[in-house]
Amino acid sequence: MTSWYCEELHSKVQQRLYVDKLLYRGRTDYQEIEIFENPLLGRVLVLDNIVQTTERDEFVYHEMLTHLPILAHGAVRKVLIIGGGDGGILEEVLKHPVETVTMVELDPKVVALCREYLSSISGDAFDDPRCDLIFADGAAFVAEDERRYDLVVVDSPDPIGPAKVLFESPFYAGCRRCLADGGILVTQNGVPFFQSEEVTSTHASLKRLFAHTDFYVAPVPTYIGGHMTFGWASDGGDIRAVDRDTVAERYARSGLTTRYYNPDVHVAAFAIPNYIRELMV
Question: Catalytic pick from 48, 155, 158, 214?
Answer without folding.
Answer: 155
